[in-house]
Amino acid sequence: MKDRLGTLLVWASGMLVMGVLLAIISIVLVRGLPFLSLEFLTQAPQKMGREGGILPMIAGTFLLALVAVPVATVLGVGAAIYLSEYTVEGRLTRIVRSGTEILAGVPSIIFGLFGFVLFVLTLGFGWSVVSGGLTIAFMTLPTIIRTSEESLRAVPRIYRDVSYALGAGKWHTIRKVVLPSAGQGILTGVMLALGRAVAETAAVIFTAGSSLRFPTSPFDPVRTMAVHFYILAREGISMDRAYATAAALIVLILVVNSVALMLMRRYRARF
Amino acid sequence: MSQAKISIRGLDAYYGDFQALAGVDLDIPANSLFTVMGPTGSGKTTLMRTINRLNDIVKGFRATGQVIVDGQDVYEPGVDVPSLRRKVGMVFAVTTPLPLSIYDNVAYGPRVRRTRSEAQTGEMVEKCLRDALLWDEVGSRLHDPASRLSGGQQQRLSLARVLALEPEIVLLDEPASGLDPVSTARLEDLMRRLSKSYTVVLVTHNPLQAARVGELTAFLYMGRLIEVGPTSQLFTSPNDKRTEDYVLGRFG
Asked: Is A22 exposed, middle or buried (0-12, 13-18, 19+ CB in 10 A)?
């Protein structure tokens, strides 16, 4: 009897989660898709977004991700490799790992303030793609380090033994055996980072600004789709366009995640 | 009397405070099939790993004494360890294909040094797969993932991988563990064949396998070398009571 109750509860939780997810997606799509059109996606906004499209916002979103993801991946995976392959579990690694986990819990708006002070003011980048991208990169760094390190540590020790026994050096072993093995887990972390970069609002407003103009240089301020939706909705400028922007954002996220899943599946099939 | 291929003198090995080997003295002749037998935990794997210095990567490992390969102590400062590991190839107990294709597994060793063209590498891969008696089974699907092979095939792949290094010594650490009798017999035949051109050292915890394979056998127990001699002598009239108990299956 208890078994059945347990199964029912678990099943109900699963259904609830699916339900919430579907509800969120469908609310946005139902209200937004009717206003989504090719013109909307390829035109610039007019009258503060009351009319026109969201082309600069789409560009802004891509550019921000283009800065954030490579920076976060290189720094994050590099740090993870260092922690996993070049250090032995001890006091130092425990301190670093605690630091990473604390950072992972810091609210994104704090990162926004950090980015504002460091990139916008002190380094003089101003409100720009660069400031926003770097801030998002630092924000997603703890997650990438954590998931990458776990993936690297999960690679069986014997793979490394075999590689060394065949005369390979440490870096060769990491590049050719350990990293590819951990690839799937690392990719998951990167996808999470990408998702965050695309959806952040507070940290982005503080560092990339909210300009409606199409960015022409990395130091131009830029507005992402998520920020645009927020501003349109909060200021009551145009609810239709707000929902349309949100719908475009959700479609983008779904597409990116599907592509990533497909890549991971094909990658896994190779081994 | 020609110099032994591998000479071990007074070898002590420690993992932290734990002493795994004590005062081991051993001579392994060139081009022979030499078996090291003993119960699990007697230090056989440790012994193997000191020969190719694979224990270097284990934190807390220390070794004193000499491990002389071709007249040179491998623990002397300035020894080129990757070169040593190409001369002394190792097949591990747990069959471990690298997460690559069959071809890439065998080509892995040669590619580290990148001294060959791809065409030459291809020839080398074929030769080694043939020598390991695996070519007939995989020749047509070299780019399949190595993980799809059976246990026995993966073990022969590990051997091919080692042969691609063109080593002089081949160490096999319990290579038949987990293999069915047919694959085991095939592997043992392979080892006999290889011993004509390489110095082959086999580690096993199975005294019956030691009796089948190898001209010389050494009995290692609790980190100490108890007895070493021609295989037939060790099994018919051993000098030490512990050897006798082990080969009769009274323990181990």
From this structure: exposed
B165 burial type by CB count under 10 A (0-12 exposed, 13-18 middle, 19+ buried): buried
The reply to whether residue B165 touches residue A163, judged by beta carbons under 8 angstroms, is: no
Judged by CB atoms closer than 8 Å, whether chains meet at B98 and A163 is answered as yes
- Among all chains, which residue has been given the structure tokens 């103009």? A213
User: Measured between CA atoms, how close is B181 to chain A, in angstroms?
Assistant: 25
pTM of the model: 0.82
- What digits encode the pLDDT tens for the residues B146-195? 989 998 899 999 999 999 999 999 999 998 888 889 888 988 999 999 99
Quote the tokens at residue B143: 């780019």
Residue A21 belongs to some domain of the structure: no
**Does some domain include residue A262?**
yes
User: Are B92 and A162 a contacting pair at CB < 8 A?
Assistant: yes
pLDDT > 90: what percent of chain A?
38
If we measure between CA atoms, which residue out of A165, A159, A169, A156 comes closest to residue B162?
A165
Query: Which alpha helices (H) appear in A156-238, and where do they start and end?
Result: 157-165, 170-173, 179-199, 202-208, 225-234
**Is B74 near chain A, with CB under 8 Å?**
no
Give the pLDDT confidence of B16-68 residue by residue, as tens digits. 999 999 999 999 999 999 999 999 889 999 999 999 999 988 888 999 999 99
CA distance A105 to A107: 6
Nearest in space to A186 (alpha carbons), one of A174, A198, A202, A199: A174
A163, pLDDT greater than 60:
yes
- Contact assessment for residue A243 and residue A232, using Cβ atoms and an 8 Å cutoff: no
For residue A87, tell me if it sits in a domain. yes
CATH number for the domain that contains residue A255? 1.10.3720.10
Domain boundaries B6-247, corresponding CATH code: 3.40.50.300
Write the burial class of residue B7 (CB in 10 Å: 0-12 exposed, 13-18 middle, 19+ buried): middle
User: CA dist A110 to A49, A115, B139, Å?
Assistant: 28, 8, 59
**How many domains does the structure of chain A reveal?**
1
Q: Are A48 and A237 in contact (CB under 8 A)?
A: yes
A49 belongs to a structural domain: no
Nearest by CB to A270, from B96, B98, B145: name it: B145
CB of A160 within 8 Å of a chain B CB? The answer is: yes
Q: Of the candidates A259, A232, A218, which has an alpha carbon nearest to the alpha carbon of residue A60?
A: A218
Q: Between B85, B99, B147, which is nearest A166 by CB?
A: B85
Q: For residue B38, what are its two tokens?
A: 């003993």
Provide the residue range defining the domain that includes A247.
Answer: 55-269
Residue ranges per structural domain of chain B: 6-247
The closest alpha carbon to B196, from B133, B131, B136, belongs to: B131
